[in-house]
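Lecture 7 notes: from sequence to structure.

We start with a single chain of 345 residues. Read the sequence below before looking at the structure.
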Amino acid sequence: MGRQQQSVCGGAGWWWRAVAWWGAVVLGHLVSHGRAGLLDTNPGLAYNFYRTSCPNAESIVQRVTWAQVAANQALPGRLLRLHFHDCFVKGCDASILLDTAGSEKTAGPNLSVGGYEVIDAVKAQLEQACPGVVSCADVVALAARDAVSYQFKASLWQVETGRRDGPVSSAGNTGSLPSPSAGFGGLVQSFAAKGLDVGDLVALSGAHTIGKASCSSVTPRLYNGNATTVDPLLDSAYAKRLITSCPNPNLTPASPPPASTVDLDAATPFKFDGTYYSNLLNKQGVLASDAALTQNAAAAAMVANLTNSINFYAAFAMSMKKMGRVDVLTLKNGQGKIRTQCRVP
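Now the structure, written as tokens:
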């Protein structure tokens, strides 16, 4: 974590101004909606939902998550992706965590999802403090926020809690996940099915400012059969770098040996910032779905706006809150349960 910590803690005062600014926005929003923070637009979620039933719940999640991230700088990207893949399949119900036969974990898009060990560690601590109280779905949402926020030592967005856990997990339901090769129309359709608009699509795609992409998701943009045929939406110099990391899988033996993954943001791979959007404008988006955001005028204008990291943080915070409400199970709608072990129904 040395290089990352240096870039964040060494005189980067504007990062703190960004956090303070967004914190003021969130605080004002909470006050305007009453002391409990319950919003009218969601089916039973609230800020500080566990304030009486498990007062230290959120501090426990943060403490355990930050300790894990301090030892593994890849975790923010993994936990953010885990949360996304959970919410886009049957809603934010922790169904992706289940180890049942034919579960979501076994589906192709989820084979590279990670971070489960962090959820297990957090849940174990919560069960010691408040048995049977805090849902696995809320742990996933909180851990994603805390993992990303470790870089700043302050929360980048507020998480509404009160989700309950779903009992069913099926690989057959993962078709709702957006494809890394999707065009703009397909992405809009996938997000609209979850009640998310183009602004949410652009903001949430900013999660690709950290994390990795598998070479199998990249090579279709570099090769056509045995030939090198680079996607015209890729900068030629950047494409050569990708080819070095991800050689043509159709050639045997591949030379040089292929990397299994590449950084989604080659410029600042472990820094949560607006650089991802600058990369897109420079035709350096790794995935076809990244490049697709520049092929629509309205989306491209949003991309340009979010190159400013403060604008990105604000947009990302609002869209994460919207995503966190997708098809949730709560006491209000009388669905779901609290799992004591996140991998077991």
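Residues 1-40 have pLDDT under 50 and may be disordered. Keep this in mind for problem set 3.
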